[in-house]
Amino acid sequence: MTEPAQDTTPAADRLSPLHDEHVALGASLTSFGGWQMPLRYTSDLAEHRAVREVAGLFDLSHMGEIEVAGPQAAAALDHALVGNLTAVPVGRARYTMICAEDGSVLDDLVVYRLAEERFLVVANAGNAPLVADELVRRGEGFDATVTDQGDDTALVAVQGPRAEEIVVSLVAPEDVQVVKDLKYYASLEVRVAGTDALAARTGYTGEDGFELFVPAARARELWRAVLAAGEPLGLVPAGLSARDSLRLEAGMPLYGHELDTTTTPYEAGLGRVVKLDKVDAEGNPLDFVGRAALASRKGAQPARVLVGLRGLGKRPARAGYAVVIPGKDPDVQIGHVTSGAPSPTLGYPIAMAYVTPEFSAEGTELAVDVRGREEPVVIVPLPFYRRPQPS
């Protein structure tokens, strides 16, 4: 029997609606984005492999949920964000960013269009207050209301090859097919284990899966129901550590590592999310916050490029380590690692790093300074891992 973890919550940290569930499951807890969240329950490797092979259950209640609603909600978001939210159909979602006037990234977001005049903006935990404040400020003059729903919302994710099987076992028979038919980056409102939920086919692991937004007061009931339905198949609760190694294999950026206020979407290889050709309802070019700075950078060679690194040795590169030219002066750095770890799925070390453009070509052999020792790496395409597609 697993001993419950000691609750060492810093006074300033917020608690998830599922905090007591994590303690009862023996989770190791950590402070993350102003929240006390589970780092792991058993082992990082076991939780990572469960998600790749069967399914994992994540508590993501630390993420921010912000509703933007009203006749001009889409127009307000088009002005506030770099994406074209007017073009998103009801029931679909869009990955986008909120940038500063200089084009730097304040946060990366997923925006769900729930109705013609209602959107749900999901922000990273540590940035949620800033995003909410910016949406209010940037929405001035638009007929739209911004409401921070984070305190009232819990978010539970089921990720892995058998995620669909687990989720559909918890919905009414008449809803089974509609859940199965849900497309990637789409959502619908459905009852899951007797709880009204927004079920979204989105995730941050590189696997198929669902993110379930539910009232905070119903989070425990849903969590326990998913565990009960999934455990016979091999589902396990998974913490932030497995979530990080999974997203790294999938080449997904993490704010504070690959994205921050020193980075533009173009440097991060995410220029596709910037829609400079947005127009207003009359067909006129639409200005948005950061547009001028981003337009000036499009097509220009960035000072640095985000690349994938495959380790050729055994020691993994870690965030902050210097990227250097093999056999040259180690003080001459050509970049730095933003995220790095051993890959449980692939069996070798992987990392993402920013390097200068002349050293960014696929196949380029470089080195990472790992505590004073050069570890050989080679640049490879991102993502490192793609889930197998049904034949």
Automatic annotation (TrEMBL):
Residues 18-278 form the GCVT N-terminal domain. Its EC number is 2.1.2.10. Residues 304-385 form the Aminomethyltransferase C-terminal domain. Substrate binds at residue 211. Keywords: Aminotransferase, Transferase. It holds the Pfam family GCV_T_C. It catalyses: N(6)-[(R)-S(8)-aminomethyldihydrolipoyl]-L-lysyl-[protein] + (6S)-5,6,7,8-tetrahydrofolate = N(6)-[(R)-dihydrolipoyl]-L-lysyl-[protein] + (6R)-5,10-methylene-5,6,7,8-tetrahydrofolate + NH4(+). GO terms for biological process: glycine decarboxylation via glycine cleavage system. It comes from the Bacteria. GO terms for cellular component: cytosol; glycine cleavage complex. One of its GO terms (molecular function) is aminomethyltransferase activity. InterPro entries: GcvT, GcvT/YgfZ/DmdA, GcvT/YgfZ_C, GcvT_bac, GcvT_C, GCVT_N, TrmE/GcvT-like. HAMAP family: GcvT. The glycine cleavage system is composed of four proteins: P, T, L and H. The glycine cleavage system catalyzes the degradation of glycine. Belongs to the GcvT family. This is Aminomethyltransferase. It comes from Oerskovia douganii. The gene is gcvT.
